Fold:
Amino acid sequence: MSAPVRAAAWRRLKRLGGPRLTRGNLLAAGVTLLLGVALVAQVQSTAASDLEELREEDLIALLDDVTNRADKLEAEVRRLEQDKARLEAGGDDDAAARAAERRLESYQILAGTVPVSGPGVEVVVRDPERELNTTIVIDVIQELRDGGSEAIQIGEVRVVASTWVEMRRDTLVVDGTSVSAPYEVLAIGDPHTLAGALAIPGGFIDNVRRSGGSVDVVERPDMVVDALHEPSPHQYARPVP
Amino acid sequence: MIPVLGLVVGVVLGLLLQPEVPLWLEPYLAIAVIAALDAVFGGVRAGLEGVFNDRIFVISIASNVVVAALIVFLGIQLGVGAQLSTGVVVVLGLRIFSNVAAIRRHLLGA
Structure:
């Protein structure tokens, strides 16, 4: 491009730059005005819609995600509404109370704080030669528990989870209480199963006989275990929250 | 000078009025803006070459916008709207580049 052409171009640019009110200038101004408005409008509408910029796969993934979350939340809503309806229905207060009462009962029996009655076995152990040791006493407790007994009493002592057994100068001591001979053991449970558990060959009854003692097992359809265990407050153990 | 002022006023108007672009217009508006830009650069080039004609300028800008919108419309109807829009943008971009190159050659000789 030669210099004269360039000079002419600059001259024309200057002429174009000047504020001349010609028809062409006005027309061009109108068109560029429209262009400016359209440009800004398009830029702003694009900036406003962030989702439209995403690719189809991203949109599908996003949609899936949202749908999944909506499903989960809907399921949760249904569950909570069912809970609400159940709690609101008046009769179910009783159900909750009954369930709590049943649980309390079973805990009381386990803890030995209430007298209980039911079918069971009455075991009388005679030990004239004072040959009985703690192992045999623990053995009878274990056999009775294994046989499904729900409450056990030795002499006047209720056997609970924390019960301990000791032979102190030929006297049986259970939970710190002396039990005088003949030892009377009461267990509530299925009488037949409990009697069978004690009579296993090489089991409790055999052991006592070998030590020179004798055992009487009486199955009773209804009996009472009325010795109570006084639960002491726990000094060290705390429930983990 | 006045067309540049027109552009500035248009931008300011757009910012002030915040016109809402209807959804159906959006794919066309973007292409139309690029087509109009192409025509504007063509007009500047013609002005520098001394052959600027207001009638031709208006007609070229209008036809550019209409043809671009038609092509996009056709593309959308055929299910290839996005691809055809890209094609139109490429072609218009090439034209803008060549127009700007001509303007640069006229003014700077390079």
In short: Chain B has one domain: 23-108. Chain B touches chain A at residues 1-15, 17-21, 26, 29-30, 32-33, 36-37, 40, 43-44, 47-50, 52-54, 57-58, 61, 105-109 (CB under 8 Å).
